[in-house]
Amino acid sequence: MTGPERRAGHKRRNDPGTGNQRPQSRRHRPTLDGARLTAYDVLDGVSSRAAYANLLLPQLLRERQLEPRDAAFATQLAYGTLRATGTLDAVLTTLVSRPLAELDPKVLDLLRLGAYQLIDLRVPAHAAVDTTVALTRAIVGTGASGLVNAVLRKVAAGGDRAAWVATLAPADDDERLTLTTDHPRWIVEAWREALADDTEVEAALLADDAAPEVHLVARHVDRDELAADSGGEPGPWSPHAVRLHGGDPGKLAAIRSGAAAVQDEGSQLAALALVRAPLEGPDARWLDMCAGPGGKAGLLAAVRPAGVHLTAADRSEHRAELVRGALAGADDVEVLVSDATAPSWPAGSFDRVLLDAPCTGLGALRRRPEVRWRRTAADVEPLAELQRQLLDSALASVRPGGVVAYVTCSPHAAETVAVVDAVAGRDDVEVLPVAPLFPEVPGIERGEHAQLWPHRHGTDAMFMALLRRTR
Fold first, then answer.
1. C-alpha closest to that of 38 among 145, 118, 139
2. pLDDT band at residue 72, thresholds of 50, 70 and 90?
3. CB 285 within 8 Å of CB 311
4. What are the Cα distances from residue 358, in Å, to 131, 151, 380?
5. pLDDT attached to residue 5
6. Mean pLDDT lowest among 8-12, 158-162, 172-176
7. Which is nearest to 270 in space by CA: 461, 419, 424, 421?
8. 450 phi, psi to nearest 5 deg
9. Where are the CATH 1.10.940.10 domain residues in the chain?
10. How far is the CA of 68 from the CAs of 4, 15, 35, 106, 227, in angstroms?
11. Which CATH number among 3.40.50, 1.10.1220, 3.40.1130, 3.30.70 corresponds to the domain 214-262?
């Protein structure tokens, strides 16, 4: 048996995650499978309220106190179904007589939940179909349960994912990859453009589908001590990283005290790129200009030399407050609420500037499984325009001889090399090579810039570029 079949009673609660609350249904909800009900409630939150699964699911698991086996199955169901949405919809489209967009969204989420169990988890048909029909009857009503029963039996008859991919008959290799790796075609094409070797594309896409390890950053504690206390091991690339293989990091004393934090090792390297960049002239004032929620600012504050003043800014008061939390207890820091496209500080004020630019977040698809379907190709250019504006502002904020680190959590060419290329031809800008600053990290080169990949480095797909203002 792939998943637990023990039934646990859980009543529907007010929907968490966004602050909106729905009235309790008048229909009594019978005793249902707790893991499947929790997974459904995550799907419903994502589709109906644009909630983020990585925030909503932990909240539901804490509230419902599922046993570890059930919590693990709920996580597998919720994240797996969200990742596989495109392939599941391609299957369901062949079996439903009307466009999927015309279905009740709750029914569509239930069909996806059942279909994922059948084609990916190979849960026996009687278990996957019967439990999904029971959920449908309780959540939507008896009428919808007949449709769900009929469609899921057809899904089961069609076999596993490989059989369904063969039935769907992809027209070319990119279409095959959309179905086998659960990515929309535009992302498949973007990964192919970003990778120098076509043979890596499938591995890179599949790495997005693997559950990521939790990484810790040792800010004000010895890294080896943190590894020993957490049961993890030192990260291979950042001298401050610890990689965990399980457990709740929130229970660690170093996390509770702020001496350490949860931070992807790739994010740590992005902050260290700024620190390691060669500088001409004084080195006394640093700026993190889009600092929220504060992870990189917290590391910069911990590793800066004595006497360096750190300014962290964000346009959002809420995110600025998170930065204040990350910098709590640090001396010689300030947090500003400021729009970096029209900054409140004078031009040329800083020696080093970190621009961790707002982006599509495609580099963190392992952590946010729904983002691949929530984002579209049309989202890229407006963000790229904002990134170009912010990079111009960053270069204006640094003094002649100072350095800007441009960072995005995306490998998409339009958000990375194209943004840097837009300023690289200026006679007051010099592009600095990044890879020599990280000789311990293999396969990081992307021209003069650096690109991390989950399948190569076990990190988020962070892009890093360094630019020196020459005059």
1. 139
2. very high
3. yes
4. 41, 41, 11
5. 36
6. 8-12
7. 461
8. -130, 140
9. 34-163
10. 11, 22, 10, 27, 24
11. 3.30.70
Burial 110-137 (b: 16+ CB within 10 A, else e): bbbbbbbbbbbbebebebbbbbbbbbbb
Tell me the CB-side half-sphere exposure of residue 177, using CA atoms within 13 A: 24
Tokens 């890294």 belong to 223
Edge-to-edge strands, sheet with 233-234: 233-234, 241-244, 214-218, 260-262
Active-site amino acid positions: 409
What sign for the dihedral angle of Cα 439, 445, 450, 452?
Answer: negative
The pLDDT tens digits for 378-423 are: 999 999 999 999 999 999 999 999 999 999 999 999 999 999 999 9
pLDDT averaged over the chain? 93
34-163: which CATH number, 1.10.940.10, 1.10.10.10, 1.20.1540.10, 1.10.1840.10?
Answer: 1.10.940.10
Span 290-298, average pLDDT: 97
CATH architecture type of domain 265-469: 3-Layer(aba) Sandwich (3.40)
Pick from 40, 148, 44: which is nearest to 95 by CA?
A: 148
- Single pTM value for the model: 0.89
- Count how many Cα atoms sit within 13 Å of the Cα of residue 51 in the half-sphere of its side chain: 25
350's enclosing H/E stretch is strand 350-356
| Interstrand relation of 333-337 and 350-356 (parallel, antiparallel or unpaired) | unpaired
CATH 3.30.70 intervals, the chain: 214-262
User: How does residue 31 score in pLDDT terms, banded at 50, 70 and 90?
Assistant: low
Q: With pLDDT > 70 as the criterion, what percentage of the chain qualifies?
A: 93
**Six-digit token pair at 397?**
């904020």
Give the pLDDT of residue 29: 46
CATH 3.40.50.150 residue ranges of the chain are: 265-469
pLDDT tens digits, one per residue of 331-368? 999 999 999 999 999 999 999 999 999 999 999 999 99
Judge contact between 363 and 356, C-beta under 8 A: no
The Cα–Cα gap between 29 and 9 comes to 9
The rounded distance, in Å, linking the Cα atoms of 342 and 323 is 20
Six token digits for residue 12: 């529907």
- Write the CB contacts of 304 (distance below 8 Å, at least 6 apart in sequence): 275, 286, 310
Any bridge partners for residue 32, and if so which?
8
In this structure, how many other beta carbons lie within 10 angstroms of the beta carbon of residue 448? Answer: 15
